[in-house]
Amino acid sequence: MPKPPPRHADASFCVPSRLLPVLRRSAALVFACFAASLWAAPVDIWVSHESPLQKAFVDALAPALADAGHEIGRIVHSNSTAGQADSGPVVVALGFEAALSALRNSEAVILAALISRRDATRLMHEDGADRLAAVVLDQPVERRLRLLKQLLPGVRSVVVLLGHDTASRRSEFEDAVAKAGLEMRVAVIEDPSQIVAKLERLLDPQAALLTVPDPTVYNRDTVMGILLTTYRHRRPVIGFTAAYVRAGAVAAVFSEPRDIARQVAQLLTSGASLADLPRGVQAPAHFRIAINERVSRSLGLPVVNELDVLESLRAAEAAAPSR
Q1: DSSP per-residue letters across 57-91
Q2: Which of 66, 129, 55 is nearest to 268 (CA)?
Q3: Per-residue pLDDT tens for 244-277?
Q4: What CATH number does the domain containing 296 carry?
Q5: Which of 82, 117, 151, 260 could make an SS bond with 138 (beta carbons 3.0 to 4.6 A apart)?
Q6: Across the chain, where does the E strand assignment appear?
Q7: Of the candidates 214, 268, 264, 226, which has an alpha carbon nearest to the alpha carbon of residue 89?
């Protein structure tokens, strides 16, 4: 009786070695496409009101999501019950009120945007905050200090006025200023009537004012008094919005709605599932600067190219160790 042939793997499954790299790359591509589609669903946008800033954000987010195979679903108004109950698995909430409403009235993963650090921190104390991520508008102190040092090489001390919302962060500012090799001169403002007197005591010939987003100190009623005081002492101001630069600050670093939308799209599409979405408060990753050339000239500051300064800041940040 003849012996059966030895059992080997079926020859139809043998793959020439030269084709293995191609198959591996194809398999990786298929897996990546499959993984990216695990949570594929329209992204609902929750708003508390309509504004040009929110429209600019949505206009920038839509094509960024489309590039990754996602789309914007419905625009849900947080002050209306229509559409809240049947939101999809992820919600992008614009502003504090919309984010708070989404936390309380949906079970979705929530990515808050166009929101201040102060308001994002408040949201983190709400029930359901484990479902929340937030990209804030506030720039990191370190980034703003890099801008200050690049534009104002003669500055040796930094004046910081803290109010009700930022007094608890005093040590954070002190650490950042010290690491930048500068001296911090600080005052806590309890009432707006104290601002000018305290500011004048802190300004010296080698100081610059680093503004901070605190409405107790910096608001429409106080900004001109602050800028006039610093201008009278011929001391530069680093603002935190482009509007401050237009009003008379030397410069500012800030993020526009399209910058935040770009980061939101990257966060939503970079993971295989919504579980990969980083929770908590995140600083803006994309930013730009504005420089007031007229004020710079009047203070005798070096003439610089805005684009060169921006690229230098980005390069310095890319080279800095992760926090």
Answers
A1: HHHHHHHHHHHTT--EEEEEETTS-TTTTT--SEE
A2: 66
A3: 999 999 999 999 999 999 999 999 988 756 667 8
A4: 3.40.50.2300
A5: 117
A6: 43-47, 72-77, 90-94, 109-115, 132-136, 157-162, 183-188, 207-210, 237-239, 251-254, 280-282, 288-291
A7: 268
